[in-house]
Amino acid sequence: WTHSAEKVQGYHEGRLAAGLLVNLAASICIVFLNKWLYVRLGFPNLSLTLVHFAVTWLGLYLCQALGAFAPKSLRPRQVLPLALSFCGFVVFTNLSLQSNTVGTYQLAKAMTTPVIVLIQSLAYGKTFPLRIKLTLLPITLGVFLNSYYDVKFSLLGMVFAALGVLVTSLYQVWVGAKQHELQVNSMQLLYYQAPMSSAMLFCIIPFFEPVFGEGGVFGPWTISAVIMVLLSGIIAFMVNLSIYWIIGNTSPVTYNMFGHFKFCITLLGGCLLFKDPLSVNQGFGILCTLLGILAYTHFKLSEQEGSKSKLVQRP
């Protein structure tokens, strides 16, 4: 019996390690591959986003066909606001990645946490302890310092980053509310969102980017460029799928700490691969943001453990 239990435990730990490694590799690869496609090949931004949406939907279609999840029937108008915000946050974060250094892009994403707290406080009347609010100060200060002292500072890049943070925050708040309201999980929701977002982008692209000819999605791209674009779409799907799997199979501590590890590796990779210059002030800004994120995570997890223990003690 003991030997059998150890085998089961070892198998579970092996699957967990494999899931974390897949997420780590996919999350880091997608940032650098997309940046490469924008900077080195000049691939159009919205068109790449459309490829991501289309591959994600095809991947989810295969998952439900294989019985990984059961689709739930939803009315289009129930999913429309989410599809719009999903479309917006991917487009603006990709534009931010295209216009900023990898470090500034990654740090700007950290502003999602303070903005979510602000939206939930103002629009949903949710209250947060003072210690949680205080951790948002070093996060915000760090992002500001990094952006201000970035040698490759771009005003347009900052606008895209700010819009990306705002729309991402709205999307995350709405996803939580919609999952509760419609009684669906994230895969069931994404299964409806992805094709709707693809259709929206398909209608918008001709107004902003060439479709045929030089620089267009159906332009004279080399075979290697086409393979890289399709690979980018597959990795985007793997990121979505592995995040869902990790959240379902690990504790919040594991997932959050793993997120911080990816954050540091991505910043380091941006400096090494794209020769993004990093000043002392930027380094201080990054450290400031990281300390703020760690403090926020610690307090949030302590809060969750506290509420769990209260539920257990309740007669």
Characterize this entry briefly.
The protein is an all-alpha fold and 315 residues long. It is 81% helix and 0% strand. α3 packs across α8, α4 packs antiparallel against α6 and α10 packs antiparallel against α11.
Model description:
This protein has 11 helices and no strands. It has 315 residues and is mainly α. It is globular. It is a multi-pass membrane protein.
Q: What order do the helices and strands follow?
A: HHHHHHHHHHH
Main pleated sheet:
none
Structural class: mainly alpha
Morphology call? globular
Unreliable residue stretches:
311-315
| Tally of strands | 0
Strand content: under 5%
Write down the Rg.
Answer: 21 Å
User: Mean pLDDT, rounded to whole units?
Assistant: 78
Distance from N terminus to C terminus (CA atoms, Å) equals: 35 Å
Count every helix, treating DSSP H or I runs of 4 or more residues as helices: 11
What percentage of residues falls in helices of 4 or more residues?
over 70%
What's the arrangement of secondary structure elements?
Elements: H1 2-39, H2 45-65, H3 76-99, H4 102-109, H5 112-123, H6 130-148, H7 155-182, H8 186-208, H9 223-249, H10 252-273, H11 280-313
Describe the structure using short key phrases.
11 helices; mainly alpha; membrane; transmembrane; transmembrane helix; disordered C terminus; 0% strand; 315 residues; Sugar_P_trans_dom
